[in-house]
Amino acid sequence: MSHHVRRRLLFSLASVLLALSLSCERAPEAPLGPGIAEPFPGARGGVERILAAARADDRAWARLAEMCDTFGPRPAGSTAYLAAARWAADTMRADGLDGVRLEPVEVEAWERGRESLVLLAPNGPRPLPVTTLGGSVGTPPGGIEADLVVVHDFDELERRAGEVRGKVVLFDHPMEDRDDMFRAYGDAVKYRWAGASRAARHGARAVLVRSLTTRSLRTLHTGQMGYDEDAPRIPAAAITVEDSAMLARLAARGVPLRVLLRLGPHRLGRRPCPNVVAELPGRELPDEVVVVGAHLDSWDLGNGAMDDGGGVILALETARLLRENGLVPRRTIRVVLFAGEEIGGLPGGHAYVEAHREELDRHVAALESDAGTFRPTGFSVRAGDEARERLARYVRLIADGDGLELREGGGGPDVSPLGREGVPVIGLRTDTTHYFDYHHSPADMPEAVPDEDLRESLAVFAAMAWLVAEAPDPLPRAPEKP
Questions:
Q1: HEC string for 197-241
Q2: Which residue has the higher pLDDT, 2 or 223?
Q3: 352-394 confidence digits (pLDDT tens)
Q4: DSSP class of residue 122?
Q5: Which range, of 168-182, 201-215, 413-427, averages the lowest pLDDT?
Q6: From-to residues of CATH 3.50.30.30 in the chain
Q7: How far is the C-alpha of 311 from the C-alpha of 64, rounded, in Å?
Q8: What phi, psi does 90 have (nearest 5°)?
Q9: Pick the residue with more confidence: 466 or 402?
């Protein structure tokens, strides 16, 4: 992967990191109070109707379960992804949306294949759960048998560089439990992303990383990794929090460790992986567009309910909810289900920008949900000062002055290419306390998504989309920097 693509991926991650924080309590059934200023005529009544309809609706969770149960994991470029994309298109047609289409995107597809890890010493053999990191190369057919060196960070790796040649390196770096879990993730994810190249420069044969989660029932968490162009490419995999901690304790006692690692991933070449697009045309200004989106692809360990099935359902249900409740806004709501977010480089986001470049100046805003669908805590925004001030008024109206916050940050990874074109981008923030319990793991199933929280997320997300699309004047662009 080129340095340019790595920078794009890390930029997207940084946008998400800035977007999220802890939730706070709010009373979902309270009516909007008269003390909250109405940003434009009719805004209060529209928001009240949207909140009430979303909180009373039972279709969102049922659709999430239908998608996840029917298609299972949706890796980019897989047949399951294509089937899910067709389902999403058919669903939006049945909901009465216009212009439903699959817009071409291609990705470099990857499949993990067989994988195993055996602790040979001490007192082996002991099989340990293991999962290949996305994009990793495989081991030789017979595997890699080698001594294991445990380090806790890159500084320790450099101090012990002379011990690494010919070994397997384990990065036992815990993800800390913090108020802002996405910042905790950002601090730990560098070992998953860059650990292989850093260790390979010192002659390591393979790397293992501690799964990125703060709570674990010996559950594996995968995710994308990357290779530097100037370093050897060695296999990389994740092990459970419990096994990583056990190996670190043994190493601290001076117990020699030896492992046998077998990984069989392979690249499948370029595969189709389309964006799914549909529209609720605006009643007065149909050429002006408000994007609502999420990424349709998922990792292959769970069924992608939390990441990002819930976001997909918010995008679908926002358009349906508005249409069925007679709240078609002035501007067009365009649903975009993006392709390939999990594999890095944001191919779906960049393909959308290129396919719609001639109308980007008519894109008023882009909203994304890619932080789970637990209880909403507010929104993040990247836009100019005037747009932020207006959005802050919208948030106060939606929250009735209680609980939701607007913060500076990224709108989400897939809309970040639109943000770099000057489009104001907005991201839904949720309570992320338990998000990483499920993230990129076999536990990412519909049961991870509380129905009540999904309804509340839909209420808040749909209300914001409607306000942006209904306002008499479009959100202003940020002034160009000299």
A1: HHHHCCCCCEEEEECCCCCCCCCCCCCECCCCCCCCCCCEEEECH
A2: 223
A3: 999 999 999 999 999 999 999 999 999 999 999 999 999 999 9
A4: T
A5: 168-182
A6: 113-264
A7: 10
A8: -65, -40
A9: 466
SS3 for 427?
A: strand
Going by pLDDT thresholds of 50, 70 and 90, the confidence category of residue 163 is: very high
Q: How far apart are CA 194 and CA 75, in angstroms?
A: 22
Joined together, the tokens standing for residue 406 give 């607007």
Residues of the chain with CATH 3.40.630.10: 3-108+270-470
CB within 8 A of 361, min separation 6: which ones?
A: none
Q: What DSSP assignment string belongs to 283-310?
A: SSEEEEEEEEEEE----SSS--IIIIIH
pLDDT at 99: 98
Q: What is the mean pLDDT of residues 183-211?
A: 97
The crossing angle, in degrees rounded to 10, of helices 310-324 and 59-71 is 140
Cα 385 from Cα 270, distance rounded (Å): 42
CATH topology for the 3-108+270-470 domain: Aminopeptidase (3.40.630)
Q: CATH: 3.40.50.2000, 3.30.2380.10, 3.50.30.30, 3.40.50.720. Which one for 113-264?
A: 3.50.30.30
Is the model's pTM score more than 0.85?
yes
Enumerate the active-site residues.
Answer: 341
* 122 vs 258: CA distance, rounded Å: 7
Query: Residue 464 — pLDDT band, cuts 50, 70, 90?
Result: very high
Rounded average pLDDT over 433-441:
96
Q: Which of 322, 432, 421, 311 is nearest to 367 (CA)?
A: 311
